[in-house]
Amino acid sequence: MSPVDIVRAFIDAWNANDMERVVSFLHEDVFYHNVPVEPLRGKAAVARYLQDAGPWDSVDWQLLAIAATGSTVLTERIDAFVVRGQPISLPLMGAFEIEDGKIKAWRDYFDMQMYVRQMPPTAQG
Amino acid sequence: MSPVDIVRAFIDAWNANDMERVVSFLHEDVFYHNVPVEPLRGKAAVARYLQDAGPWDSVDWQLLAIAATGSTVLTERIDAFVVRGQPISLPLMGAFEIEDGKIKAWRDYFDMQMYVRQMPPTAQG
Fold first, then answer.
1. Which of A35, A74, A77, A98 is the mutation pick for testing B, counting most B CBs within 10 A?
2. Residues A74, B92: C-beta atoms closer than 8 Å
3. Which domains does chain B have, with CATH numbers?
4. Which residue, A42, A87, A110, B4, shows the most beta carbons closer than 10 Å to its own?
5. How far apart are CA B47 and CA B42, in angstroms?
6. B91 at A interface, C-beta within 8 A
7. A72–B67 CB contact, under 8 Å
């Protein structure tokens, strides 16, 4: 699988709302950065984070564009979720670095306030 | 020039802090969206916006990655500026759509608070 194919399959796993499959694409030493907040390091840490963030009632990521340079894959997306009945739709771009067929780095760039404004009231803390 | 070459030359114009050259890359009907805020439409509107936003003491955009799919170019960047003596450094990704050798669409994705926190106090009002 090419780097683009791997990222497409990763997005398919998200859209199947299959977190076990999502996590299987991550390198053991993955660096995961939602750029407005602190990054996470390691597959186990990311798996825990995803477990805490979910479960999602449904996931619908729209891939607007995808292009690769070497083993780096750049994406433009609209990540839509339903969380506890609340729909969230977030326009963003993400960069993925592939190593040994796995996602070694994943950086998503978005506006945190666009996300927070859509969260269910009970989760806004 | 390929779409990637055009975006590279556009970034070079930014790094030369040459706004006349920057604007020359824009299509008359450009759609310019700093995604956290309202988009602008048309070269004249973008030129006015850039005139109001500047002048910059210096500009240093670092291009971390660039890749194209057809006429769409995706970038990962760190856009650094100095504005009224204040350094600002913003990690972001941007998508560019090229038409007739010009930038027809430009969408930058970033966290607005990461930007606002770095602005000179007099400009935060």
1. A74
2. no
3. 3-119 (3.10.450.50)
4. A110
5. 9
6. yes
7. yes
What lies within 8 Å, CB to CB, of B89 at 6+ separation is: B78, B79, B80, B81, B118
Q: B22 and B90 in contact (C-beta within 8 Å)?
A: no
B125: pLDDT strictly greater than 50: no
Minimum-distance CB partner of B69 among A66, A111, A114: A66
ipTM of model: 0.94
Query: Out of B67, B91, B95, whose CB is closest to A69?
Result: B67
Put simply, whether B8 touches A (Cβ < 8 Å) is no
Given a contact cutoff of 8 angstroms between Cβ atoms, the answer to whether A99 and A119 are in contact is no
Task: Decide if pLDDT at A2 tops 80.
Answer: yes
Query: Looking at the complex, does the CB of residue A34 fall below 8 Å from at least one CB of chain B?
Result: no
pLDDT band at A54 (very low <50, low <70, confident <90, very high): confident
Distance CA B109, CA B102 (A): 20
Q: Classify residue B107 by burial, with Cβ atoms within 10 Å: 0-12, 13-18, 19+.
A: buried
**CA B33 – CA A91 distance, rounded (Å):** 12
Beta-bridge partner residues of B69:
B72
pLDDT band at A120 (very low <50, low <70, confident <90, very high): confident
Contact criterion met (CB < 8 Å) for A67 and B76 = no
